[in-house]
Amino acid sequence: MTDMLDLTRVTADVGATIKPGPMVTAPPDRAVTDDVLKNVAEGAGINGPLLADLLVAMAIHENTSINMYRALRSYTLNPMLHSAFSSFEQDALEAVGIYTELGQELGVPKYYISPAGRMTEGLNSHMVMSLLASGSADAVTADMKAVEMVMLGANMCVANTMLLAELAEEVDDDHVKGLLMDAVGKLIGPQRHHLEWAIDTRRTMAMTMLQHPVGHKLLTFAENVVAKVKGVAP
Ligand SMILES: [Fe+2]
Question: How far, in Å, from the CA of 137 to the mean position of ligand 1?
């Protein structure tokens, strides 16, 4: 598994290995096959290669969330959102560490990047790229989109952890079950908090805008939204 606490993106120059695919080739010393991954979570009756690919993709989702929170933090002018994004960035960093540790304990090779992980990087970076369109919107609208990005990203975080929780229920091997449950216990709290915060904040912002009389100055309107969002601060 990757040492992603220290690395923003695991690429060839830092030793990434990958499973060759229909459009991906890798030199022999960088190629990982299902045969190499078959011992992941050995004895637990799980498809080891698939679990390795999923865990790497889950870690990468959290890793790219760090980038997303950094980008959102630099875009917003709203101090309440700024502080929420900073705190969520720390949680995402911790989540990467939890996934990294879990993967290594289950036998996922260090610096292995799964095809599912690379596609997760693509998906999440396109979401952040949508900030390029923020020049076409006022500050409050851009902030709404930022909160929606958190909502979409946090949904995936929660779904990933719930998948691990379900897997833990099914596994007979006590050691593997314990590792999975331990990770789930650490991950789920902050992830649920991010999701609930995003849903509440989006609703508050939207309701404020919807109830704002047409013709009022945008500044008063933005101040109103900031004041309301204070009520759902992290
Ligand atoms: Fe997350």
Answer: 27
